[in-house]
Structure formats: structure tokens, C-alpha cells
Amino acid sequence: MNARLDALLSHPLLWRARDTAVQVDALPTGLTSLDEYLPGGGWPTQGLIEILSEQVDNEALCLFAPLLATVFAHSTMRKEGGDTLAWITPPHEPYPPALTASGIDIKRILVVRTEQTLWAMEQILRSAACRVVLAWINEVSIKNLRRLQLATEASASLSILMRSVRYSAQPSPAVLRLKVEREAAYLKVSIVKSRGGRLGSILIPDKRNA
Amino acid sequence: MSRSGQTFDLFAAAIAAVTPIADGDATKRLVTPAHSLQSPPTRLQLVPAAPIDVASSKPVTRFWLAIHLPRWSLNALQVQMVRPLPLVVIAAGSQQQVHACNEAAESFGIEPGMSLKAAYALNSEIHALNRDPQREQLELERLAEWAGRFTPRVSIEPPDGVLLEVKGSLRLFGGARALYERVFAELQDRGIHAQLSMAPTATAALCFARQPHAELCIVRSFEELRVRLASLPVTHLRWSAMTQQLLYSMGVYTVGDCQRLPRDGLARRIGAALLNELDQLVGLVPHARRHFVPRERFVTRFDFEMEVAEVARLEYGLQPMLEQLEQFLRTRQAAVQVFKLKLYAHARAQSDPMPPIVVRFAALAWTRAQMWTVLQERLSRVSLSAPVLSMRLYSSALMPLHEGIHCGDFFIRPADRDSQRALRLVERLRARLGEQAVYGLSLAADHRPELAWQKDPNPIFASDKTTQAESPSARPLWLLAPPQAMHVVQARPYYHGLVEFEQGPERIESGWWDGHDVTRDYYIVRSVIGQRLWIYRERQAPHTWFLHGLFS
Questions:
Q1: Reduced to 3 states, what is the DSSP secondary structure of residue B56?
Q2: Which of A125, B84, B249, B452 is most buried (most C-beta within 10 Å)?
Q3: pLDDT > 70: what percent of chain B?
Q4: Which of B417, B454, B455, B477 to mutate to test the interface with A (most CBs of A within 10 A)?
Q5: Residue A1 pLDDT level (bands cut at 50, 70, 90)
Q6: What is the CB neighbour count within 10 angstroms for residue B223?
């Protein structure tokens, strides 16, 4: 009986309030103000993250530059199977000189350009070859989001979905949802949903290059 | 031979006489009087029923497993049937003769050698197929390839036999009986009707296999061989009809009868060649055989019973083809990187020949599952212009498998396995999305921004520390390809409003020698909504402004 109950409770779609107390593996975001809000004090090392921003194309990625640069240096991010970064339908060409300059290992990047983004993403997650999957997908139903979330958890990888801010009202099974907006020289990051964390918003002065 | 050696042989023979394996011929041995001439009486006292001479007590150096295929002309056609129908294969020639038939046909009393009319008279329901000797030979070669899993020394005995020299494989497969049963079971799984036998000489093994209903026929020593050969009918030697007629007229029906005749007289009547064959049969003379050398490329075909119009239905034929390919690769310890599938429509269909489907793998492929996943994705992009009647699969040149890969996961370094997994992913994605849709990134040594990087069609997914190029100054994360021309308002570039210059100019001039001349001044600017942009101005007239990159 207990075993069956445990199996049920360990289902990825089930969130229990107790989970907040559980230590979450996390990596510092590089921004102390943001770290304070996130459970475990940083980006989760696995699960589905959703970033909603006005300019899907460029703004939000800077948040992840430190993560992508250090991802393979951290032992918690190492994974049996693969340490490739997949970029699915990025809005422009990711520019390798800039990537190398910010410390990202371009040899580990796989770029996929396709109309069948969801299929490609699921295949990538299922293959367990990629540690981090970045995808620029706008239209996706709640059913497919859940499917992606399940595939992400099953392969113990980190999926980052870049979507338009229009979809912030859509319910989502993501572990973490952030809304990124630009306010003059600041980047306003609001936490829309955070499993086991607090909600709130912070302003990041836009001083960063690349 | 020393005295102790002889005793040992006698002892072994005595054991053979009581072992259950040799059981089938124990009774025969007791009644075989054929030539109880050479053995001295002392030995007869020890093992009364096993006459021994110098030739028969010599050690067995070769051990042959013969596969005789009595219904090969039928089996080779590989007819797939939903329910058992009586089938007959007709030999080519004017008088239509049944060459082989299946069990369903046999149950009506039809047998090989009968005329087709007689067969129809017995049952009008029978299906008659034409014999295809070319196909038989091809399938026989394939069978020999399959047999390569038991021993490297395989030879073909056309039209319906395969010989395996298995002396060296006995221990691996757990003895003669275990090997015999395994070969038999595998043949049955493939739906091939076969008769097997094992003997110390090749011809003897073949002859025993040709004997109908040879149940577990294993001859382990020359002494036993001699006994069993004595009662073997000469028809199984497949000598010419004339020779056989001659032997019958002399009252010679079995091999034993032949051996009882004086050698020189027999040589005069049947010829030295056949006498030599007889000597090879009993093992007096060594028998050199040409080993089967497998082909270096894989080609196979599959014919559908009826035309197939949906891509999904092709799987029915593709699975067996891939299984053959896998088998082919495994016996050669090789892998392929490309294979080609050609689809053929019926000649009636007035359509252009369908373009071949080329399947490429990012890394070497050798298992069926691996090839199937990629082929499946590739097929999802295919539409059939006409119903397919047959398919052919061609492999590219074979590549030797990397030492570490084929011996299981044990010796593979984790890093290799990871990159293997990533490569599998790449080929699956490419099969469905196309070659161009999936790529890696690499740097190039060029000052021109658009040429400072390349799409890497063969990503390796391994960290490469040597490519850490030094970027001279700030570069945007996103590059626009091609650059976007910008509006100019009040002599300043305009992007959702007038832009504010932050940094620059950075002059880049290069490439006049290769036709992609670049003379630009780059600036980093900030747009009204706060975005940082990478723009440039052509130094040549008309000094257009272009947006080339976006910072993040």
C-alpha cells in the first residue's frame, strides 16, 4: 500500500506544499536580488522554466548567459548521458564569437531550425543527450506544455521556454515562470509562478554587455 | 601408432557405442557385417561390433556440419502466406515437373518429380510457382553468410547444400549435439526446411544429410563413419545417372558394396575421379574445399504480394530487410554510414521512377533498432507517387567497427557514449527535418562578422579547448542574417525612434580579394526602448545604415 502511495506521490504533476522544505538543487543566477526569490537560491537544475518577455528575440537570454557558461563546471549539472545544449528555433543566428566571449562552449551547442518545434523538443528531451534545452516556442497548448514538462523531468534536464508575454495568463505546469519586461534602463523580472518559492519582482540595471 | 594410443581409441569407441547420442546407429553397428575383415580377433573381443583398422582409428581433424535443403527451390522464393496453401515449384523446361512442394501439398500425395498435370489431378487448389535458380543461388549465399555465425569456414554446395567446418566451434557452442540443435532451430525459425548431419568428412556429411528423415545424425569418428557409410545408398553421392545405372547392373547399391570391390577394377569402370571421391568420402584422401567469401556490400530486395500504396505499410517489408542488413554487418564486424532504399512500382504504372531514399547516419550504424528509428523518420517525409511492388536496399561501403564499440558498453568511455547519444539524436532529427535543419556552431578566423562563424554540419559534441578565440571587442549575441537596412531620419539611423550612440566606430575592412568586400564602421547604439543594437554604416556611397546584431 505504502509503495503504491509513494509511487502516486512521486508523480511529477503532483505538487505538495511540503516540497518547499525540500532542498532544491540550484545554481546561482549571478544576481543576488534574484537568487533571494528563487527556491534553493538560484536556477533549478532541472525542470521546465518559462520566460515570458516582450521581445522574445533578445532580452531574456542575458539572464541565462552565466548559467550556460558555468553549466558544465558544476557537478550538480553533470549528468549521465549528455551535456549538450540544444537551441530550438532561435529567433536569429546565435553568434559564436559572442558566445565564446561569455564563456559558453560552442562545441556543445546544437541548433535546430524547424517548424515542428514540439516534436523536435520532445525528441531531444527523450534522447537524454542534452542537459539544457532552450526553445523559442510561442503557441503551445497546456496539454503539450505538460507533455514537455513530463519529458523534461523524465530526462532530468533543464528546459527553458522563451515565449511572448501575451501568454502570461495561460496556466502552465512549469516549475518557474518569469516575466521579463523592459523599463527604461532597467530589466524588470517578475516571478509569475515559482514552485516552492516566493513571488515578486526585481529590477536589474541594464549594464551588462552581450 | 603406439600401443597405448590404440587402447585409448578402442576405449573411446566402446564409449561411443553406449552413449545415447550415437544411439541411432548402435543397432546398425551390431548388424553391419559389411567388412569385418581387417580387424584382428583380439580387438573384436574388446569391441565386437566396431571393426577398426588404421584408417578408421585416425584422429578426427575436421568435423563437418552439412545442411541439406530438400525444399530449397520453394524456401528460396520466400513466399509469405497468411494460411497454408498447397504450393508447388515447377522446374524450368518443357515437361512441367514438380521440383519441390510444401507440406500442405505433400498431404495430398503430391511429390517432387511428378508432372504438374498429375499434381493438379490430385488437388486443383494448388498454387504453382516457377523455379528461380538465380534467386536460389543468392539465397544460398545469404544462408552461407548466416552460417558464418557458427564458423568462419563455410562452403556452398549448390544447388541445395551448405557445409560448415565446425571442429573449432564445438567447444564454444557446447558440443556437437548442442550446435546441431541450435542450427536446426535457427533454420526452423527462418522457415527453412532442412536436414542436417555431422561427420568427419565433408562429402559424408552431405550424403548423410541427403538421406531422408535423418534424425540427429552425428558421426563422431572414422570408425563410426565407415560403419554408417557401408549402408549408404549410392544415389546420395549424386553421381551421373549413367554411373548409377552401371553400378546397379553390377549389383552395387551401397557405398559398402563399392568398397568391397577391388580398387583397380572399380577405377577402370567408374573412373579415377569418382574413386577419388569415394576416398574423400571415407577420409582416406583429404578434401580441399573452397570457402565461401562474403560480399563486401549489402544488397537485398523484398517483393510485396500486392501493391502497397501507404508508406506505413512498407514497414512490413523493411523490417526483414534491416534484419538481414544487421546480420550482414554483424558477421563482418562492420557498420554503415549511408544506405539507399529504392522503391519500384509496377511496370504498368505510368510514372517516373521514384527517387531513391538515402538514409545517412551521423555516426556509424549497425543495429536494426538504430537504423529503423532513422529510416522511420526519413519515411515520414516520403510520399509515394505510385503503389510500390518491390524494394531494394543498398548499403554504402562498409566501415570497420571501432574496436571499443562492438564489445558492448563495457569498454566505452562515458564521454564517448555521451557523444554517441548526441549523434544518434542528430541523425534522428535530420531524418525527419532535413539535413539543413540541424547544425552545430564553430568559429572561423575571419574579421568579417558574418564570416567569423560557420554552421558545423558534423557537430562532435566534445569540448574543444583550442577554439577559444579572443574576441577583440564586444560582439552581439544575435546576428541578423542578412543585415537589415535601417531608415535614416535627420541623418541618424532610426529604429523605433532615433538611436543613441554608445560606442564606436569600430572599423572593419576586409575581404577585397574574395569578392565579399567589407568596408564598414560598426557602432553600438541604444534604441528608444533601451535595446542595445549593433549597427554599421557602409563606407562606400550611398553610406547606408544596417542593423547587424542585437545585444542581449
A1: coil
A2: A125
A3: 81
A4: B477
A5: low
A6: 26
Search chain A and give the residue with CA nearest B441.
Answer: A106
The pLDDT, as a whole number, for residue A72 is 61
Are B441 and A113 within 8 A, CB to CB?
A: no
Smallest Cα–Cα separation from B203: which of B170, B153, B163? Answer: B163
Q: State the smallest CA–CA distance between residue A133 and chain B in angstroms.
A: 13
Q: What is the pTM of this model?
A: 0.54
Report the gap between the CA of B441 and the closest CA in chain A (Å). Answer: 6
Phi-psi region of B508 (alpha: psi -120 to 50; beta: other; left: phi over 0): beta
Of the candidates B481, B454, B502, which has an alpha carbon nearest to the alpha carbon of residue B547? B481
Q: Does A83 touch chain B (CB under 8 A)?
A: yes
Closest-CA distance of chain B to residue A198, Å? 26
The verdict on A205 touching B (C-beta cutoff 8 Å) is: no
| Number of cross-chain residue pairs from A and B with Cβ atoms under 8 Å apart | 164
Residue B51 has pLDDT above 50, yes or no: no
How high is the ipTM of this complex?
Answer: 0.77
Tracing cell 536436414 back to the chain, one arrives at B195
Residue of A nearest to B439 (CA): A111
- Give the pLDDT confidence of A150-164 residue by residue, as tens digits: 888 888 888 888 888
C-alpha cell at B280: 574423400
CA distances (Å), origin B34, targets B51, B86, B105 = 10, 43, 39
The 10s digit of each residue's pLDDT in B227-263 is 888 888 888 888 888 888 888 888 888 888 888 888 8
| Nearest Cα residue to B401 out of B360, B364, B359, B363 | B364
Query: What rounded mean pLDDT belongs to chain A?
Result: 78
Judge whether B162 and B294 are in contact, CB under 8 Å.
no
Rounded CA-CA distance B532/B549 in Å is 9
User: How far is it, in rounded angstroms, from Cα A162 to Cα A26?
Assistant: 20
